[in-house]
Amino acid sequence: MSTNQEYDDIRFAVIGGTGLYKLDSLKHLASLDLDTPYGKPSGPVQIFETESGNKIAFLARHGETHSLLPSEVPFRANIAALKHLGVMAILAFSSVGSLQEHIAPGDFVIPDQIIDRTKGIRKDTFFGQGCVGHSSFGEPFHAGLSELLLSCSDALESSNLTSGGTLIAMEGPAFSSRAESRLYQSWGGSVINMTSVPEAKLAREAEIAYQMVCMATDYDSWRINEEPVSTATVMLQLSKNGLNAARLLKAVLPKVELKLYNSDTNPTDFTKTGSILQNSIFMPKDLISPEQLHNLKFMFPNEF
């Protein structure tokens, strides 16, 4: 469906992961049931109004009732729907396992790198099928969003906020074996999850500034003298992490709004995003297949 014009310029979105399913502190305006060329998103896109009167979007990655496995999440539809609404920047929250002693359960990490260990099961690009494109992914996360988050570290209660680190993206749904966990630790991995890829890559292709906030629930499986991670372990930590996620978001949101909604500034000066034709597509526009032109126009109506 086409969106109501009232909700066509939503510049900022939050993607909630395990433990963060809604934004209780903001005024709820609408629930948008969107269709995209890539199918339906994980659920309705929720529109909220901030205290400053700006509109932002929220999407529960695993669905509103946590009904989707990581490999089942419709990542392309999620990112396409947010881009269609005008989203320029995303903060994505995710529960993770810690691969390092100094990152304790309950701590938050703002990673700056990714190692992709998914298995090709997930549809992970908007390109192909008559459209050749390659996006730069050397710096997977957005430095500006990272800096804003780090400036709000005092918002967390009884938890530390770690700057930088490598996020291992695994397929799941099983947790790591001890050997796998220790291997990832030896690579210098900081934390591990099942949803950062392809979400971060698709956001880059869609020219959306993207930063993941990692919320540690456990020590994965590398501690030899402890039981390996289990669902029960994770569930015990989720409630605390969800409360801290809400605190962090409340603190950082006004700073994000100044960057994206201030009429005196150009938001692209902050996001550093631009034209998909200039930054990623490796072929003349008039040679792109009709199907892909249709798909890309859904996200980039001014370019196609």
Automatic annotation (TrEMBL):
Pathway: Purine metabolism; purine nucleoside salvage
Positions that bind substrate: M194, D218, Y219, D220
UniProt-recorded Gene Ontology molecular function terms: S-methyl-5-thioadenosine phosphorylase activity
KW Glycosyltransferase (keyword) present: yes
Enzyme class: transferase
InterPro entries recorded: MTAP (IPR010044), Nucleoside_phosphorylase_d (IPR000845), Nucleoside_phosphorylase_sf (IPR035994), Purine_phosphorylase-2_CS (IPR018099)
Keyword Nucleus part of the UniProt annotation: yes
GO cellular component terms, A-Z: cytosol; nucleus
Stored Gene3D superfamilies: Nucleoside phosphorylase domain (3.40.50.1580)
A Pfam family recorded for this sequence: PNP_UDP_1
UniProt keyword annotations, A-Z: Cytoplasm, Glycosyltransferase, Nucleus, Purine salvage, Transferase
GO terms classed as biological process: L-methionine salvage from methylthioadenosine; purine ribonucleoside salvage
SUPFAM superfamilies reported in the protein's UniProt record: Purine and uridine phosphorylases
Catalytic activity, EC: 2.4.2.1
Subcellular location, record wording: Cytoplasm; Nucleus
Catalyses which reaction(s): a purine D-ribonucleoside + phosphate = a purine nucleobase + alpha-D-ribose 1-phosphate
Site (Important for substrate specificity): S176, T231
Domain Nucleoside phosphorylase: 11-253
Binding-site list for phosphate: T18, R61, H62, T195
Function, in words: Purine nucleoside phosphorylase involved in purine salvage.
Miscellaneous notes: Although this enzyme belongs to the family of MTA phosphorylases based on sequence homology, it lacks several conserved amino acids in the substrate binding pocket that confer specificity towards MTA.
Subunit structure: Homotrimer.
Record-linked HAMAP family: MTAP
Family: Belongs to the PNP/MTAP phosphorylase family. MTAP subfamily.
Name this protein carries in UniProt: Purine nucleoside phosphorylase
Organism from which the protein derives: Smittium culicis
Organism classification: Eukaryota, Fungi, Fungi incertae sedis, Zoopagomycota, Kickxellomycotina
